[in-house]
Amino acid sequence: IIQPAVTLFTGSLAVASFRNMLETAYMSKKTTRSLYERSLILQQYILPRKRKGDTFVASVPKSKSTNDVLDDLKRMKRGEILQLFLHCSQPSDLGTSIEGEWDGALLDNNGWPMTSISAFLSNSLFGRGRKWKGKEFFKRNNNSCLGVNRFLSKSKDSKCLEVIEREHTFQYSLFSSEIYKDIESITLLYDKYQHPLSLWKNMRDEIRVLKFPSKKGSNKGGILIGFGSIGWSGGSLNCQPFCLVGLN
Question: CA 177 → CA 16, 23, 123, 195, distances in Å?
């Protein structure tokens, strides 16, 4: 009984991974209008620009709060999140700094098998049994931009409050995206801070900005939409989605 079950799970995982890779490859060609037209939730976030020659751009609807956006992101399918990521703002357009702490949430990774694997990798392996709780971006020091991942400690403090532990440093900068051509992302690289045999040495995160509109029509602040990938599990084609919400 055990052997067939393992074989079935392994086969399902391989199929799901291949589906992720095909989906990402399809999206990378930007032939995504049909998905946009079928998705009522995306139509709330992706609107045509008013200037001639501009294409679709993503922004938070004025009627939605941060919690509303989080609820929507958690209901979106991976393909919808990929398209939202594509249409998010270039990071250089963000009016406020990303420095500081950001709470994190894992999003749909194409159904239960891959979403469960993503949670296992992020919490049980990457977090060594601690729930992943986002990232912290440190202030720029000369030409170095560093950050670290946040994890929920297994223990609590004397007042029974949650304790955040930090591990897995990364260096971040603007780079050309490996997911989509012709766009830039805030790219997080881990190789300099992992030992040679580490599972996370060739880990890479890409982040873009889903902006909140201000009352004056300009954009101030936003939620960060990200995709994480590891070379040995398919690289950027098999990337998993997450989001980050600022805590300060």
Answer: 23, 16, 26, 25
Question: What is the pLDDT averaged over residues 238-245?
Answer: 96
Task: Write out pLDDT tens, residues 26-52.
Answer: 776 654 555 556 688 988 998 766 654
pLDDT recorded at residue 81: 95
Backbone angles phi, psi at 216, to 5 degrees: -90, 0
Between CA 166 and CA 189 the distance in angstroms is 16
Half-sphere exposure of residue 142: CA atoms within 13 angstroms, side-chain side: 1
Instruction: Quote the CA–CA distance of 115 and 108 in Å, as a whole number.
Output: 6
The rounded distance, in Å, linking the Cα atoms of 219 and 209 is 11
Residue 95: is its pLDDT beyond 50? no
- Closest C-alpha to 175, from 166, 164, 163, 187: 187
Distance CA 190, CA 232 (A): 14
Query: Full-prediction pTM beyond 0.85?
Result: yes
Distance, CA of 53 to CA of 152 (rounded, Å): 46
End-to-end Cα separation, the chain, in angstroms: 51
